[in-house]
Amino acid sequence: MNKKEIKRRRMWTYFIDATEELIKTEGFQQVTIRNVAEKAGYNSATLYNYFGEFSHLLFFASFKFLRPYLEKVTKEMKKEEDPIQKYIVAWECYSEYSFNNPEIFNAVFLMDLGDHPENLLDRYYELYPSDLLEIPEELHPLLFDRNISSRGRFALSGIVAAGILSEEKAEELNELTNLVWQGMFSNLLNNRAFYSPEEAHERTMKYVKKIIKSIVEEK
Question: Of 33, 39, 43, which is closest to residue 14 (Cα–Cα)?
Answer without folding.
Answer: 39
